[in-house]
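This is your field. Have a critical look at both lines of this record:
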Amino acid sequence: MNDEEIVDFVSKKPANNEEEQRAAEEEEERTVVPTNSEAFAHLDGALLLFEEQEECDGRRLLGLKSIRDLAARKRQSLLKQTLITDYIK
């Protein structure tokens, strides 16, 4: 170890109490939320898969398409450039 590594190691405080340990664990357990584009791509793939299944019926297919379309609308709204006049209102 060089001098900088020794200083870093010594200067770090260990988590002494349970609250600090729980906070560290909760930070590690946070789930990553996909972006709207990622959600759309995954839902589109799920839709293709579901259409090929025997259990596919119109009601379920319509529900899945509705969710996919919602992700598509959200993705489009983020891709649309905001006009500078929209900020002046």
Residues 36-88 form one domain. Helices lie at 3-11, 18-29, 36-51, 58-79, 85-88.
